[in-house]
Amino acid sequence: MKRKFNYEILNVIKERWSPRAFSNEKISREEILPLIEAARFAPSCFNEQPWRFIIADQEETLKKMQSILAPANQLWANKAPALILILAKKTFSLNGKDNYWHMFDSGTAWGFLSLEAQKRGLITHAMGGFDMDKARKVFNIPSDLEIITIVAVGKYGNKDDLIPDLQIREHPDVRMDIDKLLLK
Ligand SMILES: Cc1cc2nc3c(=O)[nH]c(=O)nc-3n(C[C@H](O)[C@H](O)[C@H](O)COP(=O)(O)O)c2cc1C
């Protein structure tokens, strides 16, 4: 089904979606860092900037990150040249108190990252399907950092390389109507 837009919005928002048909073409650190730069300028509660990232774009780290993914995600995400683990610091640096908004703010940062990628001709696909306990061990992540998601980043490849089940799902997903989102 084709996406329908009721209003004229930013092209990057209209064009972004979550493909699985990654090309295995490498991307350089210099191509990844502007995405982190976009994330860096997200707003956050008390400007805490709770987002943290582990970039896997070299063979050894990529293998480690791939080993954490759920098998259903490995099927396609193992081709991506970069996998970024997104974390969120749970407490405020100023006073050590719980930061209720850490996940909210890191989510905003991921949104900015994905739109910057879209602008630069890169594709992104976030995944919740991975072993968080294993991620904590493999990357030695301290308890003050919440583990949120792994994002695959790269260039679009060939839909025909996906297994048939995934080829069927290889399209932008539609959305609920606006009136379903607005509560009384
Ligand atoms: C936090 C989060 C977790 C997700 N987890 C997975 C996942 O494990 N596997 C997968 O194939 N897609 C995953 N997705 C992708 C969503 O299914 C996708 O964003 C949603 O269907 C909307 O489609 P669109 O991004 O193409 O607009 C995830 C997305 C987000 C934001």
CATH class of one domain: Alpha Beta
Q: Mind telling me the CATH superfamily name of one domain?
A: NADH Oxidase
What about the largest sheet?
Answer: 4 strands, antiparallel
CATH topology of one domain: NADH Oxidase
Fraction of residues in β-strands: 15-25%
**Which structural category fits the helices and strands?**
alpha+beta
Uncertain parts: none
| Oligomeric category | single chain
Write down the secondary-structure element order: HHEHHEHEHEHH
List keywords for this structure.
single chain; 184 residues; alpha+beta; NADH Oxidase; four-stranded antiparallel β-sheet; 8 helices; 4 strands; 16% strand; globular; binds flavin mononucleotide
Would you write up a description of this structure?
- There is one protein chain.
- The protein has 184 residues and is α+β, with helices and mostly antiparallel strands.
- The protein contains eight helices and four strands; from the N terminus they run ααβααβαβαβαα.
- Helix 2 crosses helix 5 (102-119).
- Bound molecules: flavin mononucleotide (FMN).
